[in-house]
Specification:
Layout lengths: L3 H11 L4 H15 L5 E4 L1 H16 L11 E5 L26 H8 L3 E6 L33 H8 L5 E5 L6 H7 L2 E4 L20 E5 L2 H11 L17 H4 L8 E5 L8 H16 L3 E5 L4 H19 L17 H12 L2 H14 L4 H23 L4 E5 L15 H5 L6 H6 L3 E8 L5 E7 L5 H14 L8
Parallel strand pairs: 2-3, 2-4, 7-8, 7-9
Antiparallel strand pairs: 1-3, 4-6, 5-6, 5-10, 9-11, 10-11
Helix pairs in contact: 2-3, 10-12, 10-13
Amino acid sequence: MSDLALQIAADVRAGRRSAREVVEESLSLIATGDDIHAFLEVLADEALARADAIDRSVADGEDPGPLAGVPIALKDNLCTRGIPTTCSSRILAGWRPPYDATVVERLRDAGAVLVGKTNMDEFAMGSSTENSCSGPTLNPRDRGRVPGGSSGGSAASVAAGFVPLALGSDTGGSIRQPAALCGVVGVKPTYGLVSRYGLVAFASSLDQIGPLGASVADAALCLEVIAGHDARDTTSLEGPVPDMLAAVERPVRGLRVGLVTELVEGTSPEVAARVRESAEALAGAGCAVEEVSIPQFRYGLSAYYLIAPAEASSNLARFDGVRYGLRVDASDAEAMNVATRTAGFGPEVKRRIMLGTYALSAGYYDEYYAKAQRVRRWVANGFADAYAKFDALLGATTPTTAFALGEHSEDPLAMYRSDTCTVPANLSGDPAMSVPFGTDAGGLPVGVQVFAPALGEDVMFALAGALERSAPTKEPPR
């Protein structure tokens, strides 16, 4: 797979291509091909003005940055000053933040060009991008299937070739799962490596921002740009950022890789076959690959669906019709609050708020929320035990390939099971990423997942690069 973002930036910085030409091409592709509804907002005028400014700086002998002229899309839960940020929810329809998220600032400083905001499950709650008040996004590899979620619009925009890079957020797999279903690269960094300032919160102890890219190297470059300490985020880590781009080409011979039994068993036969083939590919590259059981993973999903809704219940209390967003007038403040939240939130968001409020309520806190937090610690201990023996871990990203639109809409539990393979890394805070590795019999992409210890992104990207080089040829978008 060619490194599109790297090539664009190199060409623009060297004057071989103009940023305007690159951005015009991206905008044209979106205008003629976004019947998949990847974008909620396309920023054509702003993008072209930004491209012209980059071209002027190149003409003046200046270096616009490592992402010079690269078109990029942002999930619509990342604040953009003066540009609508809705989280695909009626309750934030038309809201224009007065500030940019830290990652947006860093992308602009690196020369990237924001071309639009992408569709998502409302407040990042979902695994299919069907829970959007603006309607679903379609998978560009099969328009009858979901792109995954909640960052489905971002994944689809890369898979369709509209942009080489996009940003998403990952609370329980919302970058990696759609990356797998759309056949692109998706990265959840170590918790705290990327600032969450300006990310509209879902579950603050789990949320993380990361890139989706057309290649492993593109994703590594983007992550290097947005990573690093930010004093505005109290959970932001201090210290150096791992050297991820250089790691992509690094030899992997001698690395110890654990193939996680629990992330192969229970997946579809075709997904399991691709994961085992990826393990064989790493063994062929010189890795020492061995199966490992981490039984705690079987309980991660249950813990996640108590912890995340509990934090969502608290975080979404701010949307009350008073300070910003939708307001439905009523006879008094309490009635206005109820009417606003009833009209503004969709069914899945309401479901999770109620579940989280129940888990935090008196008499149930110890039985549910506190117990889930103990399971979370147990899952993290399972990772730690595995990393005492292995440098990295390998497994499936999703139990199946992309499912049909509407297939799980009336069955929340079936939808939640889509996150089975991804939630453990959010509970532990360790980095994980999905890399395309072949397809099923119908040509739908399969993603394999690479895990590494906290701040082990360099090892993770080295293995991801080796997998990308050995992967079967990817089918083009349909």
